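Internal tracking record. Fields below are filled automatically when a chain is submitted to the structure queue. Please do not edit lines marked as system-generated. If the sequence contains nonstandard residues, flag them in the REMARKS field before resubmitting.
Queue: standard
Priority: normal
Entity type: single polypeptide chain
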Amino acid sequence: MLKMPLRRACLGALLLAATAAALPLSASAQAVFPSKPVTLIVPFPAGGSTDRHMRIVAQDASKYLGQPVIVENRPGAGGTLGPATMARTAKPDGYTISLYTLAMLRMPYMQKSNWDPINDFSFILGLSGYTFGFTVRSDSPYKTFNEYIEAARKAPGTIDYGSTGIGSSPHLLIEEIAINAKVKLNHVPFKGNADMQQALLGGHVMAQSDATGWDQFVDAGKMRLLVTFGDKRTTRWPDVPTAQELGYKVVSTSPYGLAGPKGMDPAVVKTLHDAFKKALFDPASMDVMKQLNQEPAYRDSQDYKEWAQATYIKEKGLIEYLGLMAKD
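SYSTEM-GENERATED OUTPUT FOLLOWS
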């Protein structure tokens, strides 16, 4: 028969083992995360500028995570299909994450959505953003952006510009400027960059607002870049002013970052954050961003969430003003 102290010791050991077994799996899982490949959803077609950047970042992040990061393209619904599907169906274990774009903070206003852009996500980090520019043909009478705006003031609704679609960032940022300047512009939506650029070069529209594609025509002398919309001048076109410098209270880079489903373990979020932050600033990523006329727009997890919350509120006012709110 066991003596009392020994019996108590055995019972204590059994209770300790039972308690450990009852602990949430996350406590042990986070110590070895990741133990298998991580899927990164990119909500755009393969081969585009964002896909190109994310594949480089994913490759470098794999080194720091010790597991492959596999890019999975899921385009659709203006860049919201992939992350929205992830939010509804993926486990919050960190093994499925997604690129998160500004479209996520607009689409719920513009059409009925069964997901919440803030509460259905765990924010990991902000990565980068696009360089938006406003261009005209090189033989355009408008030598400056203010000349273009003044022409619109004198002839309301007759001065046009193209963008890649209603509700897109290039569209909304120009409409925001038009509101600030108290002018009315004629917006011409296109399906994509290529047909818009050809329309501009062919003289079918007076100007275009876009993030990609115009750089080659500017460098070739076929287009004139009137203004950019970041918080500072670009290194590639240092003589071109920002909208802020011209007196317009508009800064737009359409930032993108990474998010996972709601309820992710903070330790897993930190592991992903740290790996992708290192990857963002790796030489390969910096080189691709330079080629795409982009710069890092890093935000930590909390800052990225706060940015999303503030931006979601701001976007509602502009979308309401433009009459783009979803009908009940």
